[in-house]
Write a structure and sequence with these properties.
Largest sheet: 5 strands, mixed
Radius of gyration: 25 Å
Oligomer: single chain
Order of helices and strands: HEEEEEEHEEEEEEE
Strand order of the largest sheet: 2-8-9-10-11
Distance between the termini: 71 Å
Shape: globular
Number of helices: 2
Structural class: mainly beta
Length: 292
């Protein structure tokens, strides 16, 4: 099967039989911006027909688009910091008449989080109005696609997210950092960034992502490539994995695609596949509150 036939088969397998096309311009929300709900899945092509593509390190732009930001996990606003137990919570006091030390606790230990005054910018996440929040699976529409990808021996799901954001013109638009797959040293197999910008009656996606294979030996002498991956802009995961492992193979996707609302798009590549959909979203009206 040729690569073209493989792509056509994959699209016929993933795309639903009918989908409403909305080429009309998205209206403005109450904040004066055009909002969309965006869903993205990125996966690798693991089939035996996938061969090394010609990637010239000196001509490959392995940089993150700027300005760059992370999606905030939906559960982050529910995390509560617990104080570390004080090893000096118990101390010796006076010596009793019997000649042994009396152990006296300075104060009882509190079980649970300590109540602290909130920081000046503390606020609970408003999932219906806050942008760039990685929403849960209940908001996802790629569930069936992702399940089929995970069951397929020829593909591996590396990244999936659904979030809402105002889509501005390109001069005002920032990019979203993406990473996924296994972690090797301080890098992940999949890294890069996605930018969404409004252009007349459409939304443009700029996908700049790369997929790397790593050597297990930091000081290998058999590695003849000169790929230098950029530093992760937002280090995370296992902070103890800080070594630089040599890159033995690199696949690079740098594509611009014009999109309209509610259509499913597939960005093809010999080693990487990207599914993306934008859905118009309208900010809900503020809810008033009064004791009267």
């Amino acid at each position: 099967m040729t690569r073209f036939q493989h792509a056509c088969l994959l699209l016929s397998w993933l795309l639903p039989p009918a989908m409403a096309s909305d080429a009309m311009a998205q209206g403005f929300s109450i904040d004066g911006n055009r909002w969309y709900e965006i869903e993205v899945s990125i996966f690798s092509n693991e089939g035996p027909e996938v061969s090394n593509e010609l990637v010239i390190p000196e001509k490959t732009d392995l940089t993150y688009q700027q300005p760059l930001r992370q999606l905030e996990p939906a559960a982050s606003s529910f995390l509560i910091d617990f104080d570390e137990p004080d090893d000096n919570q118990v101390n010796t006091s006076a010596v009793g008449q019997a000649g042994f030390s009396l152990i006296q606790a300075r104060e009882p230990l509190m079980i649970g989080p300590e109540t602290k005054p909130p920081a000046g910018d503390f606020r609970l996440t408003d999932f219906s109005r806050d942008p760039f929040i990685a929403l849960g699976n209940e908001e996802a529409e790629f569930t069936a696609y992702n399940r089929d990808l995970e069951r397929s021996p020829d593909h591996r799901l590396l990244f999936h997210a659904v979030w809402r954001q105002p889509v501005l013109n390109r001069m005002q638009s920032g990019a979203i950092v993406v990473s996924g797959g296994d972690q090797f040293g301080k890098h992940h197999e999949l890294e890069g960034s996605l930018r969404f910008s409004y252009n007349i009656n459409r939304v443009d996606i700029e996908a700049r992502v790369w997929l790397a294979d790593f050597s297990a030996f930091p000081n290998t002498t058999t590695n003849t490539t000169s790929w230098q991956l950029p530093e992760p802009p937002f280090p995370g995961g296992d902070s103890t994995l800080t070594m630089d492992l040599p890159v033995t193979r690199l696949a690079y996707m740098d594509q611009l695609r014009q999109m309209v609302s509610n259509e499913l798009y597939y960005l093809d590549h010999p080693a990487i596949g990207l599914l993306v959909q934008i859905r118009p979203y309208t900010l809900p009206e503020p809810v008033g509150f009064s004791f009267e």
